[in-house]
Amino acid sequence: MATTAPVHPVDEVPPVRQLAAFGLQHVLAMYAGAVAVPLIVGSAMKLSAADLAYLITADLLVCGIATLVQCVGFWRFGVRLPIMQGCTFAAVSPMVLIGTTGGGLPAIYGSVIVAGLAIALLAPVFGKLLRFFPPLVTGTVILIIGVSLLPVAGNWAAGGQGAKGFAEPKNLVLAGFVLLVVLGVQRFAPAFLSRIAVLIGIVVGLAVAVPFGFTDFGGVGDADWLGISTPFHFGTPTFHASAIASMLVVALVTMTETTGDLIAVGEMTDRRVEPRTLADGLRADGLSTVLGGVFNTFPYTAYAQNVGLVGMTRVRSRWVVAAAGGILVLLGLLPKLGAVVAAIPAPVLGGAGLVMFGTVAASGLKTLAQVDFKGNDNLTVVAVSVAVGMLPVGVPTVYAQFPDWFQTVMNSGISAGCLTAIVLNLLFNHLPGKAGSPTKDAEPGEASATA
Question: 3-class DSSP state for residue 87?
Fold first, then answer.
């Protein structure tokens, strides 16, 4: 009698009801970050309210398409893991500089298209670098990703950076209430409800926030019912050498960050990322970035906050995140729905974010538990990498006097920490050791087993 091969949890398709609930949870976890990039860039360029709204709907639409490509995949595009895509913050400063020094949005989109093509072409090269990511490096990078996200949750909990009444006690009380709801549901609710603890926490938090005046749904009435993003809405892209050069640096940074996120999700879902699948995931990033340049938005990368949600809920199906991509497409086509989601107050998201981002950091510690720290310098690798990664998080202006390209790389704690961990692992575990010390020039496979 023929037996059916078991389906890996990543490939399982939950019932429609669960798909919708789990998918909405992922959307709410990343929505604030997704709309922040077009808001920051558009505001810096002094765009009208109508143009800002157009940028946001275009961003949500391409976020959804990018997520579908990454999760579902076709041919050699897409890692086929539960990965949520969104605009990268690494590109914000270069894009503001390009947009405000005469090039405008067309120059931004020209550089974004070139960067996307470069990412797609370089993807196989990055795929071959996977052997330089043993548990010592991956655990450190995942830890840095989680810890570097915690200030984002802290700002949300206090009311949102720059918001009126920032850090008022009522904001922190609301965030703490949402955190308690999330923890209570996860601990005491039935299995299905515990897996949507973040969604329940946000819904309950919103229900409490409305009567206390934390949010205003006035923007919902002003939003259009239908919004269609058309290619090159802001004009034909222009290609400036300086703009392209700065965006290529961004491309290298986002590829490094995405590599860390893909490896982290592979660890959490028990489907390890191989060189070919890493290249496929990065190639999808490149395609999405090209689409971003065509459809009036920006470079795309994997979103670390959703990595934390995968680890916390233990829902590993890529189809759940694909459903989230479908919801984002709807939000991009129906601005009124997007306005409803945008009305969720920042403290509500902050309470949920604390546990999600902390989960990412804890996953990094779990990976580091596999590493042998006896009789070697692995502790130094972790210590220095975390320190370098946290430096721009704790002191955001630390590299303000350095060249722009250096700031682009090092102002991202994730890329700074990742590069440091790779270099130090090579230095301490692959180069010949000093006299009388343990052998350091082990083969990559041996280093991976111990480091």
Answer: strand
